[in-house]
Amino acid sequence: MTPGRLRWLAPRRPLRDNPVLILLWIGLLVAALAAMLSLAARSSQLSLDFLSSVVLYAVSVADLTLMLALVFVLARNILKLVVERRRALPFARFRAKLVAALLGLTLIPAVLVLLVGSEIIRNAASRWFSPPIDTVISSAREIASDYYAERTRAVTAHANGLARALSTVDLASSDLTTIRDILGTELGQRQLSLVEVYRVTGRETPPVAAVVEAAAPSLPPGFAPAFVLASRTASGGQNWSIEKLPSGGELLRGSAPIRPTPDAKPTGVVIASVYLTDELARHSARIVEAYEDYTQLHVLRQPLEGVYLSFFLGLTLLILIGATWMGLFLAKRITRPVQRLAAGAREIGAGHLDHRIEPDTHDEFGALVEAFNTMASELASSQQRLDRSRLDLERKSLEADARRRYLETILERIATGVVCFDAQGRVSVVNPVARRLLALDADVLGAPAAVVFGRDDLRPLAALAVANGTGRADVAAHAGHGGVAVALLPDTAAQHEITLVRDGHERHLLAATTTLGGDGGALESVLVVDDVTPLVRAQKVAAWRDVARRLAHEIKNPLTPIQLSAERLKRHFTDAPEPTRRLVDECARAIVAEVESLKSLVDEFSQFARMPAPKAVPADLNALLADALALYAGLLTDATITLTPAADLPLVRLDPEQVRRVVINLVDNAIEALTEARETGRMSKDAAGVISIDTEYHPAHGVVRLRVADNGPGLPAGDRSKLFMPYYSTKGRGSGLGLAIVRRIIAEHGGSIEAADNPPHGTCFTIELPV
Amino acid sequence: MTVRRAVRLAGLLCGLAAGVASAPSSVTASQVETGADAVILVAPQARGDSIMVSFSIARAVTPAIEQAIASGLPTTFTYDVELRRPSTFWFDKLVESARIAVTVRFDPLTRRYHVTLLQDGRVAEERTTDRVDEVRRWVSVFERLPLFTTRELQEHTAYDVRVRGRTSPRHTWSFWPWARPSAHGSAGFTFVP
Predict the structure, then answer these.
(1) What is the pLDDT of residues A217-254, one digit of tens each?
(2) Model-level pTM?
């Protein structure tokens, strides 16, 4: 596509922005105005007929066109203004008022001029006519007309006389002497200027032929033969005519047919003419012209008035159109830059800071537009700086959030309890591990440290706190809550092992406090709490294992010599007297039995000390339980064992033999507890013993929970902490290593075991194994 | 029914009513339109290959026109003669048309009237008289003018001859520049060769 075509495809430039078109339209208006003025000035030179027909038609059409144009311009712009006002476009009312004011300022004087001018034209037209002038002009025309009529009658009478005189003459004869004599005589007597004789020739064209003519000496030359008049006269028609001579003046002709007899056909035509001088002819022509002008003016008075009224109307319409257009033009020129500024301000307000206004002019509006564009540029640059700062802040905020989430995640995931205190000694952060270890509620956030650590079970932890300078007043204020004044020591990094007892269980915590530096002397502190209970337990078990190993070693060695010595004594006294032999036998048996018992005890110690590591494989715990409990089928009379396996239990990595041993140990303990309770009367002999075993899967914690509960008399609360210790037994017999081995096995599997009451009475062991 | 359809139907009904109203009620009988300023009596007649049209107007020369003529103002009486075939449901079809113009020029000096008859712009006849009654007759009575031919006509078909007359120049003024005909007349006939 060529640039020329592209140029045509471009949006059309508005008229108001095209100086060439504006000048062209102004030129057209001025030309139309000049043409109308010129036509009005020349109207006196134009014929009335031309004025009342062509000019009137043209001016009326022009008026109609102008009126339609005016109506169109007004209707279009009124409609636009109405629409703009309904749309509440800015400056619509201002534009409407401006256009109305300009139009009104022009319309009122223009209409007044039109009305006054029309009235003046009507009055002037009425003054064109007056009765005296009517009389003079009509009389003059009558005189001239009568004169011509009289001369016509006279010359026609002369022609008739000549025709009678020539009626006997043979016009076809070649001898024209007679005719010349007659014509010469009559020419002189009747004061004629010219006498012509024509002969009727019949079918020829023209049907007459000139025979002879006789002219007076005073007749100017240049007259032409009157064949037409002669022909018409011969055919019985016109018998006179008026002919203008080239040299001026007129020739008034009268004709008469020449007939041999009154009833015969014409054989010729005689034409008598008199010469009217040029002055007379011109006077007559002026009289007729004046008469025609005057009477035609009278006849065409209304159309002529219409011509001048149309001129006025056309001028008025031109002025109105010009005023309307100028009003609209000025209104647009004034309001358009302001509208564009308003639109630009709206765009800027909407956030389009790259919006710019193209300056139309270089006047004050142009300067205003330039200032607006400068302001928009500065706003844009400021916005860019703000955006950059905002982005930087957002980036830093994101980084801070990320760090915060990172720390929160760490605090959530670490196995260490963390409690942070602000400079006022209030709890600002508590992670879940700290809440769990210290049994704190979520609402401790914001609570003073004195309140939190004033609780009875946390009193050992409160001992870590000493008053410092910053939190002293606050601590003193809250001292009454728990009876303990708590504040964290600045620059303290001491570690203290603390044992908390809750629900009969001991929990060993390693607590450390650290003071963080703050602005203006305000100090923040962090309390870190580690649960070292498994470690302590492991240390105790290790110690017991070492003790067991030493005991087994130290005890097992002398047992065999003792047993052999006893058997040797028994054999030595085989031949002794009966009382002696019986005494030795009883003693030897007792020694051997006790040695066997000690060997059995030593074996258990050895087994406890040398327990192998579990060989974990994925196993079905429910199937393992069912297999282990099958051993008790039909053996129990006073108790029932129920198994409630979980349906969704996943496979658990465990050593089946060790776990089976755990289950059997717990069930045996329960059976023994029920039996002993019946025997000691702590439980009715008629009461049915129930041992409930169930499994449960906790996906959220990733553990499988196994509960073994009985409805026996239960355990004293004070014994629960010692329950899993070696050599502790409530049965009064046995090694006391069963539950210690159970705990060790569960611990070797990464799990835990807890003992608790089984309401309303009984004991419940809960084992958690990781999946 | 949509509004546009209703408007179309109403327009069709109006067209039908107008067509019925404008249809000729009889043939070969001279008709006179009423309601016009002046009445033109029209009498068409098929003669040989031509349609001879005679028409006359009772008051062609009004006192105002006579005054205008007497002022020496050339006055033209123009008659537009149209041969149309009526249509019931549509506009009548124009078969042929002719324009008769009679210009009267009065010479105040000789008191004679020069009358020129033009048919379709061609001078058909020129006359001179000093009698105004003859002038009145020449401009208002036209006998057997062979204006149309029968070549385009269909046998046993009804036709209308319409004549509209006007004078110029206008002696009155109105803002509307286009003058309407001041006289009307029409007559129907059935073409029978």
Answers:
(1) 888 888 888 888 888 888 887 788 888 888 888 899 99
(2) 0.51
Residues of B in contact with A296 (CB under 8 A): 68, 71-73
Fold annotation for A147-291: Beta-Lactamase (3.30.450)
Q: Give the residue-averaged pLDDT of B172-191.
A: 81
Closest-CA residue of A relative to B173 is A303
Residues of chain A contacting B169 with CB distance shorter than 8 Å = 49, 52-53, 300, 303
Q: Provide the pLDDT for residue A721.
A: 67
Q: What's the structural domain count of chain B?
A: 1
What is the pLDDT averaged over residues A696-704? 89
Q: What integer best gives the mean pLDDT of chain A?
A: 81
Nearest to A60 among B109, B169, B177 (CB): B177
8 Å CB contact of A292 and B111: no
Residues B33 and B41: their CA atoms lie apart, in Å, by: 9
Full residue range of the structural domain in which residue B62 is found: 26-191
Residues A83, A86, A91: CA angle, nearest 5 degrees:
85
Express each pLDDT in A617-671 by its tens digit: 999 999 999 999 988 888 888 889 999 999 989 999 999 988 998 999 899 888 8
CB contact under 8 A, B110 and A284: no
CB spacing of A61 vs B109 below 8 angstroms? no
Chain A residues lying within 8 Å of B64, measured CB to CB? 299
**Pick from B73, B108, B175: CB nearest A288:** B108
Instruction: Answer yes or no: are the C-beta atoms of B114 and B138 closer than 8 Å.
Output: no
Interface of A with B in 128-147 (CB under 8 A): 141, 144-145
Shortest Cα distance, chain A CAs vs residue B105, angstroms: 12
Q: Which residues 6+ apart lie within 8 Å of A628 measured at CB? A: A660, A663, A664, A667
Searching chain A, which residue's CA lies closest to the CA of residue B69? A296
B80 confidence band (pLDDT: 50, 70, 90): very high
- Looking at residue A435, the DSSP 8-state letter turns out to be H
Give CA separation, A401 vs A217, A396, A406, A428, in Å.
Answer: 139, 8, 8, 17
Q: In 3D, which of B135, B78, B125 has the Cα closest to residue B102?
A: B78
Tokens for B121, please give them: 């712009």
Q: Is B166 among the domain residues?
A: yes
The closest CB to that of A145, out of B71, B109, B171, belongs to B109
Q: Considering only CA atoms, which of A189, A245, A235 is closest in space to residue A208?
A: A235
pLDDT, tens digit, 9 for 90 and up, residues A734-764: 667 788 888 888 988 888 888 888 888 889 9
ipTM above 0.90, yes or no: no
pLDDT at A490 > cutoff 50? no
Could you say which of A141, A287, A300 has the minimum Cβ distance to residue B169?
A300
Chain B residues within an 8 Å CB radius of A280: none
Is residue A595's pLDDT more than 70?
Answer: yes
Min Cα–Cα distance to chain B from A350, Å: 44
Of the CATH numbers 1.10.260.40, 3.30.1490.20, 3.30.450.20, 3.20.20.140, which one belongs to the domain with range A414-531?
3.30.450.20
Q: Please indicate whether, in this complex, the C-beta atoms of A299 and B68 are within 8 angstroms of each other.
A: yes
Fold of A617-770: Heat Shock Protein 90 (3.30.565)
Write down the domain spans for chain A.
18-128+300-345, 147-291, 414-531, 538-609, 617-770
pLDDT tens for residues A376-398?
A: 889 889 888 988 999 999 999 99
Nearest by CB to residue B173, choosing from A63, A141, A303, is A303
Return all residues near B41 (Cβ < 8 A) that are at least 6 apart. B30, B32, B55, B56, B57, B58, B185, B187
Query: Which of A61, A238, A288 has its CB closest to that of B177?
Result: A61
Domain membership of residue B90 (yes or no) is: yes
Total residue count of chain B as it appears in this document:
193
Instruction: Decide if B64 and A299 are in contact by the 8 Å CB cutoff.
Output: yes
- 3-class DSSP state for residue B146? strand
Average pLDDT of the segment spanning A108-121 = 85
- Residue A110's closest CA among A255, A301, A314? A314
Shortest CA gap A221–chain B (Å): 25
Better pLDDT: A119 or A171: A119
